[in-house]
Amino acid sequence: MSRRGIALFAGTEVEVIAETARVSETLGYSSFWLNHPGATDGIVRLAYAARATTGIALGVGVVPLHTRTAESVIETVRSERLPRERLLLGIGSAGPGAFRVAREGAALLKQELGCSVVMGALSPAACRLAGEIADGVLFNWLTPEYARRSAAWVEEGAQRAGRKRPQLYAYVRVAYGRGARARIEEEGERYAGGSYGGHFARMGVKPLETALAVSDPDALTAGLDRWDDIVDEVVLRLLPASGELDAHLELIHAGSR
């Protein structure tokens, strides 16, 4: 059975971030993640989760190294005093020289911080590179079937480098109750209109087909069970009905069954 983690939008109120991280740890989730949107520093916000917890792994997924230098990431991790033994530092890169930037960035981050570096990967080539250089790989917006194929590409890269396959994580969008489908469709359209358009075309699916819009905990459990033995950890990327704490906790409790 795959482990489970929780992921939130980094722009969530800091009090909600802290409390959802605390509850996630209490309920036995393995990791707690924030994303890194352009307007909000996910690393800085992750410090609120760190102070509210003691043992759960803390992830940020992912910092784009083509717009932010690895040196600035190192400085922020140090200034926020994030616990490096718990840190899953997600990175990505795009545009010309993306693989060189990712390779050099991963090496520098591991050397300077000593934390686990997790690479976001969509394409077959990116998955193979992540298998070569990263401690973990973060999949996003994909079906369990395509995740299995992606895992094989990661394994190819690891074998080519003569190393053990990295840990595999997968963000799975989860929405619950009234308006669940609409929330996922809105989020999916936003991603499909950007750099993820090619990703969805490659899979031949719509964003909704990679996510879970459910009306009861049993349906959520059944959907998450499809990921067992495909990735090491399935990370519930919450799309709550509101920004209120109760809306987040409803999803967290449902996913812990």
Brief sketch in words of this structure:
The protein is of the alpha/beta class and 257 residues long. The chain has helices at residues 14-26, 42-52, 70-79, 98-113, 124-133, 144-160, 180-192, 197-203, 217-225, 245-255; strands at residues 3-8, 31-34, 57-64, 87-92, 116-120, 136-140, 167-176, 212-214, 233-238. 46% of the residues lie in helices and 21% in strands.
Fold blueprint:
Elements: E1 3-8, H1 14-26, E2 31-34, H2 42-52, E3 57-64, H3 70-79, E4 87-92, H4 98-113, E5 116-120, H5 124-133, E6 136-140, H6 144-160, E7 167-176, H7 180-192, H8 197-203, E8 212-214, H9 217-225, E9 233-238, H10 245-255
Helix pairs in contact: 1-2, 1-10, 3-4, 5-6
Please characterize this protein's 3D structure:
This protein is α/β, with parallel strands linked by helices and 257 residues long. It has one domain: Alpha-Beta Barrel (TIM Barrel), CATH 3.20.20.30. It has helices spanning 14-26, 42-52, 70-79, 98-113, 124-133, 144-160, 180-192, 197-203, 217-225, 245-255; strands spanning 3-8, 31-34, 57-64, 87-92, 116-120, 136-140, 167-176, 212-214, 233-238. Strands 1-2-3-4-5-6-7-9 form an eight-stranded parallel β-barrel, surrounded by seven helices. Helix 1 (14-26) runs parallel beside helix 10 and helix 5 packs across helix 6 (144-160). The chain is globular and about 45 Å long. The chain starts with a strand and ends with a helix. The mean pLDDT is 97.
Shape: globular
Number of domains: 1
Structural class, by secondary structure, is: alpha/beta
Would you tell me the overall average pLDDT? 97
Q: Give a quick account of the main beta sheet: strands, pairing sense, barrel closure.
A: 8 strands, parallel, barrel
Number of strands: 9
The CATH top-level class label: Alpha Beta
For the record, the CATH architecture stands as Alpha-Beta Barrel
Give me the CATH superfamily: Luciferase-like domain
**H/I helix tally:** 10
Q: Roughly how many Å is the radius of gyration?
A: 17 Å
**Strand content range:** 15-25%
* SSE pattern, N- to C-terminal: EHEHEHEHEHEHEHHEHEH
- Find the CATH topology: TIM Barrel
Give the termini distance in whole angstroms.
Answer: 13 Å
Q: What ranges have pLDDT less than 50 throughout 5 or more consecutive residues?
A: none
> Helical proportion?
40-55%
Main sheet: which strands, in order across? Answer: 1-2-3-4-5-6-7-9
